[in-house]
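<given_protein>
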Amino acid sequence: MSHKLIIIGSGPAGWTAAIYAARAELQPIVFEGEQPGGQLITTTEVENFPGFPEGIQGPELMEKMKEQAKRFNTEIISESVETVDFSSRPFKVVSKGKTYECESVIIATGATARRLGLESEEKLIGHGVSYCATCDGFFFKNKNVVVIGGGDGAMEEATFLTRFANKVTIVHRKDAFTASKIMQERVKKNPKIDIIWNSEVIEILGVDQNKVTGIKVKDTKTNVESEIQTDGVFAAIGHVPNTKIFKDQIDINEKGYIVTQPDSTKTNIECVFAAGDVQDWKWRQAVSAAGSGCIAAIEAERALSEQEDNKS
């Protein structure tokens, strides 16, 4: 049996695609993956998603989207996709050794923020540890925060956070940034930003209080350890798009993101679409991911309709 549409991933892009596709009677199947709900599962308070004036917990928002998709008879499989074959139609999607065939695919597997790899970091995610200044900066009004990183992303995060925080401290393990010159100059000229060079964060403090109270850093040249008080830690060391299973199957850029056509979610393979953070390295917002999920579902429905028309 060949299905009309399979959606791989269950973040804002995946669930929005499912809602639109199900209402268009494409009878979509959603593979939830290893982390159902995507990055929002690790976000405590979401205040910038339209329709929730009081804010909403990230996991609750994802559960509401899931329930909405189920309402329109989306089939949900709580498994990860292991391999795909886009070389011919019907496409093949394999999970737990079982092969599913389909006429179209929407890839919405998202991206994962690079972690520092600290046990204390994992325990304080959502309690002062964040990977998105645009998402969480508002919660640090008149507080002190730390940004970890040295690329353009770190410079952007630090600059954005100065709108809210009293002081932003950038901690970088080397003695020079890798960011573009213009971004570096912007940061260095900002009176609210301090820079600590040659320092590696080895622990985030405050686990016993369930909130960030500071960081412990080690000088990469002298190995001397010291502590810095802070109310928040923003790790800005990049994102990794979840595209491993699609390599050699679809066009992927040098950063690992799936390439889509301009103003579209279409990939280089007809009837394979990509939505959300798996193809969006720039904006990475829940609402923009949801928007691209909507576009992917509409484009999938139109593509399948055109093919039906051509057959008749």
User: Anything to note?
Assistant: The two ends are 21 Å apart (CA to CA). The chain has seven helices and 19 strands. Residues 241 and 255 are 8 Å apart (CA to CA).
